Amino acid sequence: MHVWHKFLDKFSLYDLIIIAMMSALGIAIKPVLVPLSHILTGPLLIPPGAVTGGFYMVWLVLGFGITGKRGTMTLIGLVQAILVMATGMVGSQGAMSLLSYTTPGILADLGLLLIGHRVCCLPCAFLAGMLCNIAGTAMVNFINYRLPLVPLVLSLSVAALSGGLGGIIAFKIVQQIWKFQKRDWNMREG
Predict the structure, then answer these.
(1) Domain residue spans in the chain?
(2) Which residues contact 101 (CB under 8 A, 6 or more apart)?
(3) Which of 70, 82, 162, 181 has its CA 20 to 30 A from that of 18?
(4) Long-range contacts for 7-13 (Cβ within 8 Å, ≥24 apart)?
(5) d(CA 124, CA 115)
(6) pLDDT in tens, the chain (190 residues)
(7) SS (H, E, C) the chain
(8) Mind telling me which residue stretches traverse the membrane in this protein (predicted)?
(9) Any bridge partners for residue 95, and if so which?
(10) C-alpha angle 5/97/19, rounded to 5°?
(11) Can you tell me the distance from the alpha carbon of 111 to that of 124, in angstroms, rounded to the nearest whole number?
(12) Which residues make Cβ contacts (< 8 Å) with residue 136, sequence separation at least 6?
């Protein structure tokens, strides 16, 4: 328990509010995107989350880009898992939701830790989104689909592209937030 408290102590109230908002937005967008993704991916026999997962993973990358704190994506995934299990929303896999929603954040946090980035540039944001969506697609495949090798590789490839594009979208939003914060800071000084 001491390790958990020490981990959470590095997050300010502002950071925790951002984490809660990104988690809620990530879950709120699912009921809108799930039917659309079923229409697009049904004939291709690709799991729907592989294609639209990039839009789900935007919120993890965006949260880390705003807070700049390691572990943000993991916490967003954990809060999403708890929300999905508590509400029984679309995308719930029961207790396995803890694994399927938290793993993308863990993998992306570790990936950015290894390269020493914090969603500070376009390539690392692309990588974060890509890692999130690959992990999410792999976990959902493990829990639900159990695809053979060729469809699994196709699904993970689509997930990599979709997640990377989601990372780019998140980075562009983060850039706008940085510009707004800088402009607001300059107005207060002058």
Answers:
(1) 15-182
(2) 77, 78, 80, 81, 84, 136
(3) 162
(4) 7/71, 10/69, 10/71, 11/67, 11/69, 11/71, 11/72, 11/75
(5) 8
(6) 788 888 888 999 999 999 999 999 999 888 888 777 777 777 776 777 778 888 889 999 999 999 999 999 999 999 999 998 888 775 567 788 899 999 999 999 999 999 999 999 999 999 999 999 999 999 988 988 888 898 899 889 999 999 999 999 999 999 999 888 776 655 555 5
(7) CHHHHHHHHCCCHHHHHHHHHHHHHHHHCHHHHHHHHHHHHHHHCCCHHHHHHHHHHHHHHHHHHHHCCCCHHHHHHHHHHHHHHHHCCCCCECECHHHHHHHHHHHHHHHHHHHCCCCCCHHHHHHHHHHHHHHHHHHHHHHHHCCCHHHHHHHHHHHHHHHHHHHHHHHHHHHHHHHHHHHHHHHHHC
(8) 12-33, 45-66, 73-92, 122-143, 149-174
(9) 93
(10) 45
(11) 9
(12) 49, 53, 56, 57, 100, 101, 103, 104, 159, 163
Whole-angstrom Cα distance, residue 139 to residue 171?
A: 25
Amino acid, res. 52: T
Amino acid at 97: S
CATH of region 15-182:
1.10.1760
